Amino acid sequence: MDIKKIRELVDLMEEKDLLNLEYGHDDKYISLTRNTAVQTVAVPQVAAAPATAPTAPAAKTPSGKVETSPMVGVFYSAPSPNDPPFVKVGQKVEAGDTLGIIEAMKIMNPLEATQSGIIEEILVSNAEVVEFGQPVIRYKA
Q1: Is there a contact between 77 and 86 (Cβ–Cβ < 8 Å)?
Q2: Among 40, 42, 58, 104, which residue's beta carbon has the most beta carbons within 10 A?
Q3: What is the pLDDT of residues 93-140, one digit of tens each?
Q4: Where's the Lipoyl-binding domain (predicted)?
């Protein structure tokens, strides 16, 4: 396989926002994997109410870091419908652990933890369509 073909495959991965790509032709085979960094989402601050206005109890603002979807696809919380989910609320995970799967263009892409921590909230449901950059998992602060 020549370098030109490999560059075409890398360009295809970037164009289609793929994490994994496997290609085989004749007796040649290549498997490419792309790393993505976790994105944190800033929560905007609300301006303080005037001193004369009554104030309502403040809602708890989520403060933990989040894992976001690296692509548009369908989020699956377990390897198959009969298997237990990869993670549960309260579970401790290590960087590199699989948190779920995102199916994009019939390719199953693992969503891996980019940090160690305890799962505080799973922000999407099983088989829910997720967007690029959408928060999926939140860790305890």
Answers
A1: yes
A2: 104
A3: 999 999 999 999 889 999 999 999 999 999 999 999 999 999 999 999
A4: 63-140
